[in-house]
Amino acid sequence: MRFDLLDLSFFGILLKIVLIVIIYIIIVQALKIMSRDVKRGSLAGGKNLGWKLRIVYPGDGGNFVEGDSVPIGNKLTIGRNKFNQMVLPSPSVSNYHAKIYFEDGRYMLEDLNSTNGTFINGIVVDKKSLQPGDEISISQTVLTVTDDE
Q1: How many helices and strands (H and E) does the chain possess?
Q2: pLDDT at position 1 over 70
Q3: Whole-angstrom distance, CA of residue 128 vs CA of residue 109
Q4: What does CATH list as the number for 52-146?
Q5: Residue 44 has pLDDT above 50, yes or no
Q6: Average pLDDT of span 60-74
Q7: What stretches pass through the bilayer (predicted)?
Q8: Residue 74: helix, strand or coil by DSSP?
Q9: pTM of the full structure
Q10: Contact at 8 Å (CB) between 107 and 51?
Q11: Hey, what long-range contacts does 137-140 have (CB within 8 A, 24 or more apart)?
């Protein structure tokens, strides 16, 4: 009878060790996932860098004047249609011309198949990451990317 009690005690200890190892593995995996998400900037609603677009030359930019700043946030759509966050009413601006969005820890500008193109530092682009100081041209409107608060 004493032998049976020792066997049960041994299996109880073994079960506890196995459970501790399983919990440890789960915690390590969760920390890896959280670390990867933080590096990509996808926690806290896709935490962005807080950058803005400063109006250098409003051109045909509607209500914007030189020196105005527009926060980019997580996504900023630009175009002639009133449903964009930044409306540029010129006929040479497409209804949905371009968008800027935060992805993998950086801001990306993407031309939305506009008729007249989107330019960064004088070069027409389809999709490109942005840096502070970049100059964006859409029709006659000229914008500069800033990282100042």
Answers
A1: 1, 11
A2: no
A3: 5
A4: 2.60.200.20
A5: no
A6: 85
A7: 12-31
A8: coil
A9: 0.67
A10: yes
A11: 138/78, 138/88, 138/93, 138/97, 138/98, 138/114, 139/59, 139/60, 139/88, 139/90, 139/92, 139/93, 140/57, 140/59, 140/60, 140/61, 140/90, 140/92
